[in-house]
Amino acid sequence: MPVESIFHRLEALLPKVQKPIQYVGGELNSTVKDWDSADVRWALMYPDAYEVGLPNQGVAILYEILNELPGTLAERTYAVWPDLEELMRAEGVPQFTVDAHRPVRAFDVLGVSFSTELGYTNLLTALDLAGIPLLAADRGEDDPIVLAGGHAAFNPEPIADFLDAAVLGDGEQISIAISEVIREWKGEGSPGGRDELLMRLAESGGVYVPRFYDVEYHPDGRIKRVAPNRADVPWRVHKHTVMDLDEWPYPKKPLVPLAETVHERFSVEIFRGCTRGCRFCQAGMITRPVRERSITTIGAMVENGIKESGFNEVGLLSLSSADHSEIGEVAKGLADRYEGTNTSLSLPSTRVDAFNIDLANEFSRNGRRSGLTFAPEGGSERMRKVINKMVTEEDLIRTVTTAYSQGWRQVKLYFMCGLPTEQDEDVLGIADLAKKVIQAGREATGSRDIRCTVSIGGFVPKPHTPFQWAGQADHETVDRRLKQLRDSLRGDKNYGRAIGFRYHDGKPSIVEGLLSRGDRRVGAVIRAVWEDGGRFDGWSEHFSYERWMAAAEKAGVDVDWYTTREREENEVLPWDHLDAGLDREWLWQDWQEAVSGGEVEDCRWTPCYDCGVCPTMGTEIQIGPTGRKLLPLTVV
Amino acid sequence: MRYAKRGRLRFTSHRDISRAVERAVRRAGIPVAYSAGFSPHPKISYAGAAPTGVASEAEYLEIGVTTPCDPAQVRQSLDESLPSGLDVLDVVEAGQGGLADRLEVSDWEVRLPGADRELAEVAVEKFLAEGTVEVERLTKKGPRRFDARQAVLGLRVSEGADRIAAQVQGEPCVILRMVVRHMTPAVRPDDVLTGLRLVADFAPPVPPEVTRLAQGPLDASTGALADPLDLDRDTTRGGEAGPAGEHVAG
């Protein structure tokens, strides 16, 4: 039966809302398939505003892959702003997809990509607007399977009650596999209803279905065990890893929005995974091993992406882009190819060393020469050892001196506050470092026109990292240290005006910490916050710490117990039944070494340090150099 | 160049359109000229863009190119590169004189679903009978009061209702046509609607759907709206003529 577009009903509301263009779809390279041509239909959601969600690579890749799959269609949906939400409620307009404006409830799957936990309340808004019961247990045969993915899905326990399923890791292959399971089940006439479909997904071992697992607690609140409540459901659910990225050169047809978005560029993921072993970094831990895309595939993807999109900026993405084995060749080759075309290249996430200045110089040949960003993360040598970010002060000063002497005038330094074992002097060390950076820049250039911006984020311990056992610093401590740092920077007559200082207060980190390491009992807090009007928690103008604390109290959840409490080695963690491949003993040892100052080298260039991922997952590091060159540009 | 913004693309803002055009120019391989300086940007200038939410059959822009181009070819390749709904209608090689200066008046169509036709006619009559109609609009600089009457050269209730996007089928739809002179501050169709409410308490039940049908110089002898590109067409070759006021179904 055809599903009708709700666009005419939405259209009457659009003149009354901010930035209506974000709701109308019609982006270049977007796809609208005939509803009846498909028997498996996905609504893909990024649970934030369109301007943040549209550039998201994960959703874009799955959208393309699923639409290429015969008999399958995928459309996109995003969180609507409160102004439209209010009008939709008043007029009874349901949550819709932006492609064909079909109601989300009509799809087979609502796949939600969580980059951050702060999108949880937006999930509830979307479910409610869609007319889908909030609790998975209340859903019926006509409701979609609500499926979570993305990095936050590595601990989906706080939203377990709202989810039918979750998937860990790379989505390319598992989204196809899920489509085939659904197709087969529907082809058989949907035997056994929703329950059987979820069983079929759970039995495969690649999909986590929270309802098939029971959580038991000790009297003191700690988890006693998490166990399957049905036969044939595996004890642990494993993450997915795509090997050989050259076989998955997506996006091939990049979505080009009409509305303004946070990243106006064509992005190519030049490798996936990171083995540097920074202990705070969840992304680095859960995306192992390193898998490089080859220089030739990168070149072909950039050429195709620019042609298909018309973007004038290309981003080469990864967790540490300068670590690609042939990044020098890639940079020079692309800079040569796009010389004189007003195409700028950017390389986010680079490490602190002089080699990066060469790369930055290449990249700025054809476009804007903006600032350079480095992330020492910790203000003192001791702190950087604890987090295994092996950057010495000499490295940093040498690197920025090179940058300033080669014409860069603005350097941004990124740090964290609230790291394990941190003392006041570790944070105050950031001020010393920034002053030395300015001093070095002035000496190298003979000019006082040197600027440095210090940007500070609050540290949040994350699941599947060595810091998953750590006690999070309370927000009073973080705020006190940040204030001391600010006073130290601003009070300095010689350097104060050359140093910019950006930070957030420590309260949002506490909520993020609650959601990151929470268990199923935290779901009641999320729901209470949402019912109290909580929306868009990633936006400071919408976020309310007081609302979260009031909701936690109402739900009987002790926030400190989840955040600032340090865990013992043997405590069952809420995500222990979800397998990111990391060996738990190795993580614990690394946590102990963090406290005692031990370091871990990158296994790309030094022997394996037994994190456990490759043997558990049957994967291996895939890196170059291939020795190949960028292919010459084909004549248009 | 004359282009249209149609259907759901009427919700694009001026900034949205300029980004879309810049990208389309790149995809289409048009040899666009860039400004010099630290941050070069393509030389594309826009004349009097219709507000966000307002459709148009007659928007104008100029593109600076580094080498001569065939206007018909530019029209076709740019139209193909733009999203459907931003449609390139007419391209000529620019001659002498600024394009913006020629855009003296606009012909607007304002569709009012669910409005009462008789009340609309009374309101139009009252409005035209006034010498001045002071209205207030919230601008970026705060509320501003100005006369909405003097700029209105023509205003009538029009015949022929076909489908309006947001309209429930079977509901009546009143259509206003107005020819408005471009002034400072600009008098927009919604200012005229405000005027109708002030003089005759005429208030349509849902937001209006507004379309600019044409803009250009006013022919003093006939009082009709002329095609602003005709001046270039007289001196150059290659433009495809089309009546500026023609309403192309989108």
From TrEMBL, chain A:
A GO term for molecular function: catalytic activity
Domain spans labelled Radical SAM core: 260-502
Pfam families, sorted: Radical_SAM, Radical_SAM_N2
NCBIfam families: rSAM_fuse_unch (TIGR03960)
Protein name stated in the entry: Radical SAM family uncharacterized protein
UniProt source species: Nonomuraea rubra
UniProtKB/TrEMBL annotation, chain B:
Listed NCBIfam families: sam_1_link_chp
Name listed for the protein in its UniProt record: Radical SAM-linked protein
Top-level taxonomic group: Bacteria
Start and end residues of each DUF2344 domain: 1-189
Annotated region (Disordered), positions in chain: 210-250
Species this chain originates from: Nonomuraea rubra
